[in-house]
Amino acid sequence: MTEPRGLPSWIVRSNGEREPFDPEAIFRELFRATAHFGAADAFHSRELADAVLHFLSESETGETVGLETLTDTVVKVVRELGHVSLARVLSDGPAFLAAHQHGATDIYPPEIIAADRAGLLALGDREDQPLLAGSVVVPRLPRMLQALEEAHRHTGGYVAIDCPEYLFHAAPSPGAICDWVGEMREGLRRTGLRAVVNLNCRTPPPWAVSPTGGLFPADVRAQIAATWAHTSQSLLDELAAAGPGPIRIDWHLCDSDFEPERCSHLLHICRHIREGAPIALVPDRARRAVALAEGLDREHPAVFSVVGMRVDGLARYLAQLPAGQPGGLLRVIPALASLARSAGHARLRYLRANGSPAVAHEFLLERGRLLIVPLGLRSAVRTGAGDLSDDPDVEPQLLRAALGTVSRFPSLGPPTILDSAPPGSGLSSPDEATELAARATPQNQLRRAAALHSDTQTGTASIFLPTGFGADAAELYSLIEYAHRLPGLVRFQFIRAGTDSPTPAAG
Questions:
Q1: pTM value?
Q2: How many CB atoms lie within 10 A of CB 32?
Q3: What is the DSSP string of 230-295?
Q4: Which of 208, 320, 473, 496 is the most exposed place for a label (fewest CB within 10 A)?
Q5: How far apart are CA 377 and CA 401, in angstroms?
């Protein structure tokens, strides 16, 4: 299939009046029309809508399309795809104009609710709260509590805190570290937010005033860098002391962390991991945005919605189709990704109409994006991929197909990323990760995760460790060094056998 040229911007009525072209209106009208034949089918409607949009992009190359032309195109495409009765219903006068969209006070329209009930989507923003799902918070010294309370005015799920070690320009006392962490914990308790605290990034955050360049002598720069490294370790120790809770520590890795003189630092982190501290490891790569949490990085400070894309639900949907009806995960997963993007589009429209003033602050909606979480990928491959189930590359193929869909037709919006479930999202994957771990070494799990992450450039892998593995911190150190050499790996977290993963891996 060739790359589509683009979609019209305007619909022109017969009297010359123009209205914005709303691609979602085609999906909504198809969903309404399928109800004439029993239960309305959200997935089938989304498939047909995507086919119409592709044909429309090829046949109507201008900025406008006539309402009659649009209606004829929809009817023609639906009929040629073999749905003659549905085409007849559509020819009676469909409503493709933006004025007919669902009420602005509805979080999700009926077609998205139907997809959720059918097990095709998992909506992470069910509550009637006009808040973002996640955002990046600049740490403060002092007033970290205030920073989190301000963030809670526009964010209801999780926050990423970018390198708080840069707050301290001199080696802080243990009391100063304890006070800052205590204030952050109190802020999380009051707001109900979850936090990902990023430490040891390869480059300083944009807000940090770095005195390490310019005319400073090399020995001064080295001393300042050593201070920040020591502060990172002190923050890690204080954060890890309280055990599991609303905080995950993301420790960033770079090549210098594996130099002999820094070996003791990483071994210290290994001991924390061995003791069960909630630590994820993030290899920082050149020419890749600094990942701060699922869906968040330094270039994208907000996630306005989290939508689970139930690949296992799609496999069950295909299994229920009449014999001989075309299916196959690779063929239809683009429609599932498109369905998830429609859910994000509805949520964005709701936030624009009902969001609090704080949501508009700093243009977070304009700088934010939708996070789609692939769920049930492994179990779907086993049950729904047919002769592809023995293909080791089928899971990356499925992710590539989904990624290609959400990157097509920018006018469909919104900006979208595939990633794992963020902390506190309530989304979970039914993948039998422990079963996979029972027959895969940690190294094999890491290689599989790196293959899945390489295309999306995102993901959090839960790596299950066999009983007894890592009793010696040096063994865990060697595994981390091995993981760092895998170029595609984005983020990974070790889970002991028999322990539930706190962050189900989408890849």
A1: 0.89
A2: 18
A3: HHHHHHHHHHHHT-SSSEEEEEEE-GGGGSGGGHHHHHHHHHHHHTT--EEEEE--TTS--EEETT
A4: 320
A5: 13
Could you give the C-alpha distances from 232 to 200, 249, 265, 355, 421, in angstroms and in order?
6, 11, 10, 36, 26
Q: Are 43 and 336 in contact (CB under 8 A)?
A: yes
Q: For the CA atoms of the chain, what is the radius of gyration?
A: 25
Strand partners of residue 132:
155
**Residue type, position 267, single letter:** L
Upstream peptide bond of 414 is cis (omega within 30 degrees of 0)? yes
Rounded-to-integer distance, Cα 236 and Cα 231, Å? 8
Instruction: Determine the Cα–Cα distance for residues 438 and 401; give it in Å rounded to an integer.
Output: 29
- DSSP-assigned beta bridge partners for residue 369: 303
What's the one-letter identity of residue 322? P
Q: pLDDT at position 429, please?
A: 56
C-alpha dist (Å) from residue 471 to 58, 82, 271, 274: 60, 62, 9, 7
Q: What would the pLDDT profile of 117-129 be if each residue is shown by its tens digit?
A: 999 999 977 666 7
Residues near 445 by beta carbon (within 8 Å), at least 6 away in sequence: 436, 437, 461, 463, 464
Q: What is the pLDDT of residues 290-326, one digit of tens each?
A: 999 999 999 999 999 999 999 999 998 888 876 545 5
Q: Which residue has the tokens 């104009």?
A: 97
Question: DSSP secondary-structure letter at 152?
Answer: T
